[in-house]
Every structure is written in C-alpha cells, then in structure tokens.
Design brief:
mainly alpha; single chain; 161 residues; 6% strand
C-alpha cells in the first residue's frame, strides 16, 4: 500500500531550502557540504543546515526525499494542483490580507467559469466552497475590495472591471 504524498511538508522543505539559498553564508556552507569540502564549522551555518532533513552531516543527499520534493513542486505548478490541496479552513484575520486572499479566490473562480459571466449567489457559493470553508466571508471580502460586483438585490455577482 502506498502512502499519500504529504505535499505541505514537501513544499515546506522546498521553501526552507530556497530561504537558505537566499543567504550567502548559508549558500556557501551548503555548497561546501555538497561538494565534499567538509561540514560548516560556523555554528550559525551548521545549525540551519542541520534542519535540512534530506541532507546528511557528510553531505550525502536523500535522493528519494529530493524526488518527492521535486514531484510536489511539479504538481503545484500543474493543472492538477487544485485536486491535491485541501480547502482553506481559515482566512487571515487582518482585513487587508483577508481581502487579498478572498479576491484571489474570486478571480480564480471567474477564470474557470469565464470572466464575462454573471453567477447567482448559490452558484458562486458552490465555486468558492471548493477553495474556502467560509464562503460568505470570501464573497463579502471580494465585493468589499472591488474584485466582485454585486447586483442591487444581491442575487448576481460578476468580476469587476
């Protein structure tokens, strides 16, 4: 029996590596380790590098782990990503962040159904529910931020613009 991939964990590992590569000191330490020039002596480099769970102290890489990370990255860049990622259970608390996330969800919905269409509230709610648990918040935020326009009676929504 195969285990389902843990995409959030694999993507977290990729983010961790990218963050380390953005710091020159860590990038050099990682390079030394991977080329076999020895482990980093500086504790401020050794500590962060030790958190790369796919990298041994001697610089050997866990190739199957790297392959899983690469597969998750490829999946997230594909059209199948929506099938692998769970809905958002929570929207950011800060209003500007909440509206940004909600606006992006609304744009994705209309990219998929057609940007010129108008959707009834039930149809829009069903589409938003594929992405987020709090449908009403997403819909309201998208309207309040100007991403969506709502008819005077609230029955129809369309992408602003």
């Amino acid at each position: 029996m195969t285990t389902a991939p843990d995409h959030p964990a694999e993507l977290g590992r990729a983010r961790q590596l990218v963050a380390m590569l953005s710091a020159e000191k860590l990038r050099r330490g990682l390079g030394r380790l991977l080329t076999g020039d020895g482990p980093a002596e500086d504790p401020s480099v050794r500590g962060p590098l030790s958190r790369l769970d796919w990298l041994g102290e001697d610089g050997t890489a866990d190739v199957p782990a790297l392959r899983r990370i690469a597969d998750s990255l490829a999946l997230m860049r594909s059209d199948r990503a929506i099938l692998e990622v769970p809905r958002l259970d929570g929207i950011p608390v800060k209003t500007e962040e909440s509206r940004e996330v909600s606006g992006r969800i609304a744009r994705i919905v209309f990219e998929r159904v057609g940007s010129a269409r108008s959707l009834g509230e039930a149809e829009l709610n069903a589409a938003i529910a594929m992405f987020a648990a709090d449908v009403a918040l997403v819909r309201r935020d998208a309207v309040d931020s100007g991403v969506l326009e709502r008819s005077a009676d609230g029955a129809w929504y369309r992408l602003a613009g």
